[in-house]
Write a structure and sequence with these properties.
By secondary structure, the protein is mostly helical. It has one domain. The chain contains five helices and no strands. α2 runs antiparallel to α5 and α4 packs antiparallel against α5. The chain is elongated.
């Protein structure tokens, strides 16, 4: 389970590094002209998600510290290969536990902020498509007659669709990994908890 979790974290970080390094993320956001109300909504969303992320990191760090330091070695197996294959001297146990727990803090924090960035990007597109739908409904009369500029709506929809295609280049890998890793963990847990049955 730890292997699949750290694999998911590596995929999240690699996908966002690739998107930023190749300019796909910047191209998607720069080709997507957003309205001023969208900027304000996205700013509020980003601030709220950032505050939530830092609170989660602090709470997670506190709970993890309790697992590592207040359980008298019951969770030392999570620091493998320390304590499982590599014997740690008594006077170095605290140093090994601090080092091992830090290895857990950094990837969890990195994956959390990558996921929050994905939520912000999705919210940008959600907001823009919702605005397009709202303006299109206003252009329709009560009897279904259309009074707006159809070519303007079509151009706006094409701009949004091109930006979605640009973002989809790196987000599809994240979505597949975010779906496959928990499924793999469920399979591992279901096989691990089943008692050995004779004849199988």
């Amino acid at each position: 389970m730890a292997f699949t979790w750290f694999g998911l974290i590596a995929i999240l970080q690699s996908a966002y590094y690739f998107a930023c390094h190749t300019g796909q993320l910047a191209n998607a956001l720069l080709t997507l002209p957003v309205t001023s109300d969208c900027v304000l909504d996205i700013r509020r969303t980003a601030v709220g998600l950032t505050a939530f992320s830092w609170v989660f990191v602090i709470v997670n760090g506190t709970i993890s510290a309790l697992f590592f330091f207040a359980t008298d070695g019951n969770f030392d197996f999570t620091l493998a290969p320390l304590f499982t294959y590599i014997k740690v001297p008594e006077d170095k146990i605290v140093v090994a536990t601090v080092f091992g727990s830090l290895i857990y803090y950094v990837p969890i924090t990195c994956s959390l902020f990558a996921q929050m960035m994905m939520v912000v990007i999705v919210y940008v597109f959600y907001h823009q498509f919702r605005n397009l739908k709202k303006h299109f409904r206003r252009a329709l009369g009560k009897r279904g007659q259309f009074s707006g500029d159809m070519s303007a709506f079509r151009r706006r929809h094409q701009v949004l669709s091109r930006a979605v295609d640009e973002v989809d280049g790196f987000m599809k890998l994240i979505n597949v990994a975010a779906f496959a890793c928990p499924i793999a963990n469920i399979i591992v847990l279901s096989n691990f908890n089943q008692p050995n049955q004779p004849g199988l």
